[in-house]
Amino acid sequence: MFPSRLRGGAGLRVLLVLVLLLGATLAAWLFVAWRDYQAFVDAPLAGGAAGATLEFPRGSGYRDLVRQLRQAQLTQAPEWQWRLLGRELGVSSRLHAGEYALTPGLSPRELLQRMAAGQVLQHHFTIVDGWSFRQLRVALAAESGLVQTLPGLGDADIARRLDIADGKPEGWFLPETYAWVKGESDFDLLQRAHAAMRKALDQAWAGRDARLGLATPYEVLVLASIIEKETGVAAERPMIAGVFLRRLQYRMRLQTDPTVIYGMGERYDGNIRKRDLETDTPWNTYTRDGLPPTPIALPGLPALQAATHPAAGDELYFVARGDGSHEFSPTLEAHNRAVQKYQLRRP
After folding, report:
1. Residues spanned by CATH 3.30.1490 within the chain?
2. Residue 293: how many CB atoms within 10 A of its CB?
3. DSSP letter string, 283-319
4. pLDDT tens for residues 258-285?
5. What kind of architecture, by CATH, is found in domain 37-120?
6. Model confidence at 32, in pLDDT bands (50, 70, 90)?
C-alpha cells in the first residue's frame, strides 16, 4: 500500500508541476502579448509623412479600416491588436467617414480617436478681395479635391441655382477664407460664400449712415465693388466712397477707370486708352450716368463698410500718385493741377 501512495503522490506532483509550467507559460505569453500591444497602440504608423492622408469611405466598418491600413502597408500589427484597441477605446462602431491627415508620428490610438471624433482633414480656399466672378470660377476649377459640378454651367445658371435676382452673380460672394472637407463640391463652397455676402450686406445696410444717398442694398454692393477696385491704401476707402457719393448726388458721372476695364472684358490688355474711355458699354461710367448695372468685382467687408459710412468732405476728384495712394481735390482746377503733377509729368 505504501508504494502505491508514493506513486499516486508522484503523479500529483507531476501534474502540479505541469499545471504550474503551463500557467507560467501562459503568463509569460500574456505578458509578452500585453507588452507588444502596449507598444503597438502608441507606436507611429508606418508611412506617416507630411501630406499623407487616409480616406475612409462612407459605409465602411472597423474591419474595413484595418484591412485598408494593412493594404496600404500602414500597419503590420495582427488584427487582434486592432480589435482590442477598438474595444478599449469604445470606438469600433462610431468611426466617421472622411479624409484624415496621417501626420508624422501618428499612433493607432490617436488615429482612432480622431476618427471617432470626426476630426477630418480641412482644406482652405481663399476668395480674394477684388476678384471678378470669372476669376473666382477659374480658382474653384483649379482647387484639387473639390467635386467639380460647375464646368459647363453658365453664370446665369449658377445665379438661378443660388436664387440671385436677374441671373447676375457678379459681386455676390464674400472674399474670405473658407474651410472645406473631402466630398464637398465647388457649388457647396459658392453657396457658403454667397450666404456670407448676403449676411454681410444686410448688416452693412442695416447699419448705414442715415443720410446715405443710396436706395437699395444692391446699390451698396455695386458701389463697394468700385471702391474695392479703386483703393490701393486701405485708409482711403471712406474718402473714395465720399467722392463717388457726392458725384452721384450732384449728378456728375463717376468717371472711374475700373468700370471701363470691366466693360471691356477680354479686350483689356493691361492698358486703357482714350478710345476705350469713349467706347460705350453698360459699365462705362465715362459715357453713362449713375452706377453701373452690376458690381464689377467681389467687394470685401472693408469696402462694404466704406460704402455705407463714407467720409465727409467736399472732394469731387482724385488722381493716383503712383504709390497706391491718391490726391483728392474739391475743384476741377485743383484736380487738373494734381493730374499735371502726378500723371502728365511721370517719366
Report:
1. 37-120
2. 12
3. T-TTTS-SS-SS-SS---HHHHHHHHSPPPS---EEE
4. 999 999 999 999 899 999 999 999 999 9
5. 2-Layer Sandwich (3.30)
6. low
